[in-house]
Amino acid sequence: MTAMHAPASELPIRLDKASVVVRGNPILSEVSLTIAAGPPTILIGPNGAGKTTLLRLLMGLIAPTQGSLSRGWRQSAGPAHCAIVFQRPAMLRRSAAGNVRYALDAAGVPRAERAARCANLLARVGLAELAGAPAKRLSGGEQQRLALARALAKDPAVLLLDEPTASLDPAATKMIEDMIRNIAASGIKVVMATHDLGEARRLAGDVVLLHRGRVIETATATDFFTDPHTAEAKKFVAGELLI
User: Fold this and answer.
1) Which of 10, 16, 19, 177 could form a disulfide with 6 if both were Cys (CB 3.0 to 4.6 A apart)?
2) Cα separation of 131 and 66, whole Å?
3) Whole-model pTM?
4) Residue spans of the chain under pLDDT 50
5) SS3 helix, strand, coil % of the chain, rounded to 5?
6) Comparing C-alpha atoms, which of 164, 159, 144 is closest to residue 41?
7) Which domains, ranges and CATH numbers included, belong to the chain?
């Protein structure tokens, strides 16, 4: 499949003291962060740290209550050339191929190209033999791979993933992680949330630690796991609970 990624001006995505407040409750507080091209950026932190909200903010599904978000050289809260896969993606009441064709249609792919693109995407995520199977009857790992195929139908420059291997068995987890590596190697910027330190070690180019809605530490994966600077990061890397 020929990739048609967005121009480099999509990146970096910059957050400048961005806060998100919902019904008076601060979910993210003064987050300043730059998402640049390169290997995957992995968001880690305990449940409730704000990882999902940060992904939704990067996707443009919500806007900062305060602060700003910019993409490349332009101010924007719109999704532009981003795609997102949630932890529990909803499957349309169609076949696996029908789900991908729907995504291709939504992405504006010409009708004459959809069959070939659909076949390529299903092959890319290892679902070619299940093209005609009802999407809702696929296993959890298969549904997550199908969700990846739908996201890739948009030819995103940035792919946002919210704990894509949660609740999957080791074999399914390895398949998803291998696909994430291949996606990143193709030039797509991956930003992924996980609470699994082992997964973060395996996939991260750089790490962002969140706790109570704040960015506690950002570093390359090597520096973060070998020489964390903050007390919270040292505790988290040591397997201690952050409360």
Assistant:
1) 10
2) 45
3) 0.92
4) 1-8, 77
5) 40, 25, 35
6) 159
7) 9-81+156-237 (3.40.50.300), 93-154 (no CATH)
